[in-house]
Backbone:
């Protein structure tokens, strides 16, 4: 049974989310404050976290940053929940490591579809050799780990999927729309700037090797050695 941690300070919404998650066969864990949520995440290691942006005691962005800095929690998928829909909030959420973003009020059906899509792509094992070497990049497809010149790089599940998808199609341009469809696993309810934000963050994490991800202006991206 997949564990999903709900970090949400609105008690009624938290209870509603837990009820619907358990009805769908998940085990729901709940926390009403930021510090409590981070502590539960570190202890329980859930399969996915529903994380509110505005929380008492600790912002959702701070929690996400803390999760990504610790190896045992770095790969836990995070779906951010917020009542604020401005572009800057979406960008900040992605920059600190969120895998997806949904604005309140949202339908429970859409939320569950997104949860299942994230869990599906985080559990899929690439069908290829155990380690894929691309220039200075070593992509371990069994452990979902990446090294640059022998040094480990911490990536989120979505970042890993994005890099792996591009590396499998070395030198071939992939449109933003196709990347959304293939990496995110569904027709994303939003715009293609989601891809741009993730690519920027991925490049930064890869350091000099990030220059291998080339922008094809007005279309998409490709990986070149």
Residues:
């Amino acid at each position: 049974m997949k564990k999903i941690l709900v970090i949400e300070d609105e008690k009624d919404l938290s209870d509603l989310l837990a009820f619907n998650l358990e009805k769908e066969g998940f085990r729901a864990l709940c926390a009403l404050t930021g510090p409590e949520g981070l502590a539960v995440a570190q202890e329980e290691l859930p399969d996915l976290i529903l994380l509110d942006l505005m929380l008492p005691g600790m912002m959702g962005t701070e929690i996400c940053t803390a999760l990504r800095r610790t190896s045992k929690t770095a790969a836990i998928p995070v779906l951010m929940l917020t009542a604020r829909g401005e572009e800057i909030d979406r960008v900040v959420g992605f920059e600190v490591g969120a895998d997806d973003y949904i604005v309140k009020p949202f339908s429970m059906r859409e939320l569950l579809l997104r949860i299942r899509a994230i869990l599906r792509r985080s559990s899929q094992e690439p069908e290829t050799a155990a380690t894929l070497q691309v220039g200075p990049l070593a992509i371990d497809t069994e452990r979902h780990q990446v090294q640059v010149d022998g040094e480990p790089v911490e990536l989120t599940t979505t970042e890993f999927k994005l890099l792996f998808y591009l590396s499998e199609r070395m030198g071939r341009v992939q449109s933003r729309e196709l990347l959304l469809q293939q990496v995110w696993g569904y027709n994303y309810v939003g715009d293609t700037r989601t891809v741009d934000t993730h690519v920027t963050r991925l490049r930064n994490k890869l350091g000099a090797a990030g220059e291998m991800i080339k922008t094809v202006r007005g279309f998409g991206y490709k990986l070149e050695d």
About this structure: The chain has two domains: 3-123, 131-223.
